[in-house]
Each structure stands twice: as structure tokens, then as C-alpha cells.
Amino acid sequence: xxxGFLGTGLMGEPMVERLLSAQIPVIAYNRTGxxxxxxxxxxxxxxxxxxEAIAQSDCIILMLSDAQRSLRFMFQICKSQxxxxxxxxxxxxxxxxxxx
Length: 100
Hints:
The chain contains 5 helices and 5 strands. By secondary structure, the chain is an alpha/beta fold. It has a single domain (3-99), classed as Rossmann fold (3-Layer(aba) Sandwich). The protein has a 5-stranded parallel β-sheet with strand order 3-2-1-4-5. Strand 1, helix 1 and strand 2 form a beta-alpha-beta unit. The mean pLDDT is 82.
């Protein structure tokens, strides 16, 4: 199983490193490309777009900064591409918004 990890900021980066140490293949994407440099040096595959990360993943972990970005991702940007994939939202959002 390959994990697509979206959002590699302060919390996301160590989580990706932990997956990597458990030998779980990860492809990472972040809006700010500079935040991916350390992970790339560690051997994490880097996606150039959300679509690429999703296309190469069986499971997608969201570690986005707020509800607006999370919901926009799931329902506007990539909704049609998410079919058949497991989505784990670990974003900092209220429970009510996560259930939307």
C-alpha cells in the first residue's frame, strides 16, 4: 500500500518520517515546495501536484491547516479522483466539519 501524504508542515513532516521508518511507501505533496526538501533527502517520493499524489496512492492522509482547505480538497479539487481510496483526515478541524 502506498500512502499519499498531503500537508508536510510542522506536524506532517515527522509523521511522514515515521511512515518511512516503518518502510511504508509514501508520496508527499505540500503547497510550499520548500517544506518537502528534508523529506526528499530522506527518500520520500515527492509529487508535483495533488493529482499526481492521489493517482499514485491507495490511502491518502490529509494534514492540512484548516477546515476550508480540507473540505475544498475533498469536495472541489479532487472529488472524482478519490473513489476507491481510503482518506484519513488529520487536519486541525472541528468534528462537525470533518463529518461533512
